[in-house]
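Figure 6 in text form: structure in, sequence out.
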């Protein structure tokens, strides 16, 4: 006896919503240009038209089709239209420089490119030599703009000519579905390849209650770019479960985001901590919470405890932390409380659960190891490198880059320094390259930042290692103050000492700046800060 041999390919996710959730809406907010709404039935028809259009353009199975686009319903159509017809979806990060984009397009050997109308000027700045292999460029719009790039095609014109249904092709579940490059904070960006199988399994677990908890009763708003690890898999999980989806196209507009949380009755929103730091002020102005919002998923970097507490106490909105990375599709852990904790008070829950990065989701194994590869205990204090394995963790990079990140016994070395807790959770103490190594001891820059951000005078803080002839490295704090506030180095050190830090762990210098520079996906950009170290007085 055996089970039916159903291929775990993207049709399994695609088919479901139009069949059973045909009237459920997908909403895209385009800022001043207004709101677009349609249903999963419309989505399914247009996505199949896209599959035909790709056939007509001569893009063959297995070739890369890149997107350079904001979050929108058209991008969602690409998420399915490209892989469901056997091509590989390559989402490009629109915040990269033209030179970086060119390098990545050439490395991925992209054959076609689907680009938003307002991003055509960015495309025009990409070195022409890097675009040599790109045979077709489609503008995600009704029309093509005047452009120095010849032969642009209009998406809507292409789709209009196509039949509304596409026969599902045979797609091996182990064939590639998507390609996503890491941000390249260490060396060149590397491509992570997702397969149909890995994406289906990831979507099922992401939608489960141990994952992001997405179901038919939900309206999801991923404020995570669709070019950043597939918006944490939410568009796939949302379509697979028939959740209503809401997209905010374009850069973050806090007022607009909060309007959408209210007007569309959003139940689950998600984004990196800096998004929610910005949105907090807007929420405070409204005076009451978005009525349907169940919780906010926060990941990609550690949210400061003060942020978690503010959302809980002031807005009555739980923040649920998740951990993941491009190489893990991304979901690795989500910090849900356990049943046995149901009577715990808020303080204890925040300390033990909400400030942790995650509890491994089903299917993901976690091992924290020392430099020699020996597994360390989950004792709440010992730091080591987080290693993970699972069906949606990559086992190699595109074109074999970065092989040193895989251990001989089949684990992926994340480059994150983690501490496991006796309750089974783990927290990210730092990234290997950000950890401060002082006099043979390690200091977690992430923990220091979180405690500095707990000062009422401080809006944002980032801590980097400063080379030191005696101690090897020492912590240097960059601080953004709330308007009208002041903080001296002595006050900062005193505050940290009160919170249990030892004197040798305290920053020797603090620099007040106007804003912490952010990376292309909205995280604190420590590379830029390290570059500024020399200018410190
Ligand atoms: P990058 O940050 O280099 O652009 P990713 O977008 O893949 O790359 O981000 C993955 C990294 O984000 C992880 O390796 C980890 O350092 C950090 N991260 C993700 N979730 C959390 C979390 N909950 N707490 C702390 N750090 C996190």
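Output sequence:
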């Amino acid at each position: 006896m055996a089970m039916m041999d159903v291929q775990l390919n993207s049709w399994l996710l695609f088919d479901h919503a139009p069949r059973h959730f045909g009237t459920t809406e997908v909403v895209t907010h385009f800022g001043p240009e207004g709101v677009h709404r349609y249903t999963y039935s419309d989505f399914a028809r247009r996505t199949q038209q896209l599959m035909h259009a790709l056939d007509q353009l001569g893009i063959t199975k297995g070739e890369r089709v890149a997107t350079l686009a904001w979050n929108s319903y058209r991008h969602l159509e690409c998420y399915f239209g490209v892989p469901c017809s056997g091509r590989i979806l390559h989402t490009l990060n629109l915040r990269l420089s033209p030179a970086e984009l060119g390098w990545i397009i050439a490395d991925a050997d992209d054959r076609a490119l689907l680009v938003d109308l307002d991003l055509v000027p960015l495309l025009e700045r990409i070195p022409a030599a890097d675009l040599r292999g790109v045979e077709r460029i489609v503008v995600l719009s009704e029309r093509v703009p005047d452009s120095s790039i010849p032969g642009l095609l209009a998406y809507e014109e292409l789709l209009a000519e196509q039949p509304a249904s596409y026969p599902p092709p045979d797609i091996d579940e182990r064939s590639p579905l998507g390609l996503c490059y890491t941000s390249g904070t260490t060396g060149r960006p590397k491509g992570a390849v997702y397969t149909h199988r890995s994406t289906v399994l990831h979507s099922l677990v992401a939608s489960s209650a141990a994952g992001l908890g997405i179901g038919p009763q939900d309206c999801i708003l991923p404020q995570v770019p669709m070019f950043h690890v597939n918006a944490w898999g939410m568009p796939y999980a949302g379509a697979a479960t028939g959740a209503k989806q809401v997209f905010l196209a374009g850069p973050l507009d806090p007022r607009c985001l909060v309007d959408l949380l209210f007007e569309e009755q959003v139940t689950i929103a998600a984004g990196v901590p800096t998004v929610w730091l910005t949105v907090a002020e807007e929420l405070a102005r409204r005076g009451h919470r978005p009525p349907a919002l169940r919780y906010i998923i926060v990941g990609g970097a550690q949210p400061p405890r003060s942020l978690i507490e503010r959302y809980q106490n002031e807005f009555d909105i739980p923040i649920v932390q998740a951990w993941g990375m491009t190489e893990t599709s991304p979901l690795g852990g989500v910090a849900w409380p356990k049943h046995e904790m149901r009577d715990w008070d808020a303080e204890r829950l925040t300390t033990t659960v909400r400030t942790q990065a995650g509890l491994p989701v089903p299917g993901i194994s976690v091992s924290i190891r020392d430099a020699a590869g020996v597994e360390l205990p989950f004792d709440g204090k010992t730091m080591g490198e987080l290693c993970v394995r699972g069906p949606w963790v990559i086992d190699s990079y595109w074109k074999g880059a970065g092989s040193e990140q895989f251990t001989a016994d089949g684990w992926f070395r994340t480059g994150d320094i983690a501490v496991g807790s006796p309750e089974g959770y783990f927290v990210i103490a730092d990234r290997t390259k950000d950890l401060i190594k002082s006099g043979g001891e390690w200091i977690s820059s992430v923990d220091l930042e979180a405690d500095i951000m707990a000062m009422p005078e401080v809006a944002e803080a980032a801590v980097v290692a400063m080379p030191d002839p005696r101690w090897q490295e020492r912590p240097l704090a960059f601080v953004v103050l709330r308007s009208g506030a002041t903080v001296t180095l002595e006050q900062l050190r005193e505050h940290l000492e009160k919170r249990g830090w030892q004197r040798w762990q305290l920053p020797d210098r603090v620099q007040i700046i106007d804003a912490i520079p952010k990376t292309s996906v909205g995280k604190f950009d420590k590379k830029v800060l390290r570059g500024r170290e020399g200018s410190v007085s």
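Caption detail: The chain has a mean pLDDT of 94.
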